[in-house]
Please model this.
Amino acid sequence: MSEGPGPDRDRDASGRPQNARPRDGLGRPLPRGAEGVERTPEVSLPPGESLVEAQRLLDADRPFHAHEVLEGTWKAAPTDERDLWQGLAQLAVGLTHALRGNSNGAVSVLTRGRDKVASYADAPPYDINVEGLVEWANQLIGRLSVTGADAPVDDLAPPTLQTR
Model:
């Protein structure tokens, strides 16, 4: 019987597993010693800064990392904004799944994210591009639903988070 993870498993001071392995641009772990992309630190940015940083990462083809930025803001958001930030994070991770070839997972997460973001259409805070994000998600969901894993999604422009 196994006693748990071996001594080569990264752990923090409290014994919780950590993953210091390098990652590719889509957040997939690479072998130890491989050269990965710079990791996004776990931080909670104010909404405006979060949107700017997430957009920068989306534009750099790093939706997994954009998701992590948006997730930090979601976890710190006031109750009335949590669904919005969770939805934005889900759109980014849905794009990540699509680019990884997981069309079923992508459609599921994109649908949930789109629906959460759409519920803010009447009064989008922070100049969030709710209409454009819903349209973008519908376009990607449509592609994936018709062609599945064979859907070419790398030619789709990243979502535009803000209207300004």
